[in-house]
Amino acid sequence: MYERELSVAQRSRVIEMAWEDRTTFEAIEHSYGLNEADVIKLMRQELKPTSFRLWRKRVSSRATKHEAMRGFVVGRAYCKTQYKPR
Question: Disulfide-capable partner of 38 in 21, 34, 74, 86 (CB 3.0 to 4.6 Å)?
Fold first, then answer.
């Protein structure tokens, strides 16, 4: 299904990034090698059906999830404070 297998922590991080409004699909692809279709497949597989439908409805109406539709330029894929200490 995916080009490479992701660890549990990586899958969790991809899901977290997909839920974030300002994280683009291109940033996820740059970080994890999953394109938009792969992220959708992962979300469908990992989320409950109701949660997946809510996410798809939300993402479909967000221009910020696609770099080409954004009205501003972002110079980095992540914020220095986004990773939580473990």
Answer: 34
Q: Which two tokens stand for residue 59?
A: 């993402």
Between 77 and 16, name the one with better pLDDT: 16
Residues with Cβ < 8 Å from 54, sequence gap 6 or more? Answer: none
Which pLDDT does position 42 carry in this prediction? 95
Answer yes or no: are the C-beta atoms of 64 and 21 closer than 8 Å.
yes
Helices 8-19 and 49-60 pack at an angle, to 10 degrees, of 50
pTM: 0.72
Distance CA(35)–CA(8), nearest Å, equals 18
How many angstroms separate the CA atoms of 28 and 50, rounded?
Answer: 23
Long-range CB contacts for residues 16-20, cutoff 8 Å, separation at least 24 = 18/42, 18/43, 18/55, 18/59, 19/55
